Amino acid sequence: MPWEKAKAFDHSAIIGSFLPKKSFSSLENINFELRNNSTVLQTGNTSLMLWKIDEIIAYVSQFFTLKKGDVIFTGTPKGVAAVKSGDVLEGYLENNQVFKIQVK
Predict the structure, then answer these.
(1) Can you give the pLDDT of all 104 residues of the chain as single tens digits?
(2) Is 91:33 a contact under the CB 8 Å cutoff?
């Protein structure tokens, strides 16, 4: 699709810290958030996903060999916005900061 080239370029994805699965009481109820310069831009919950995480893994596994540490990108919650040089982006899972970067 046309957005693939716009999103899939070198260094286009931030991968934050990994948290153990046991950190979450349910994969179907994980809150996540993206802040830009301390302003919340995106917020969501895995319960809002069209397919459950286990369903996505099962489907993708039909076509690709998945190994520990592999990442599956699933989509974007509402609140997409442009970022500019100097912006500070922070990502959270259940109030745990998993990344913080400054856009160059």
Answers:
(1) 567 777 777 878 889 999 999 999 999 999 999 999 999 999 999 999 999 999 999 999 999 999 988 999 888 888 888 899 999 999 999 999 999 999 99
(2) yes
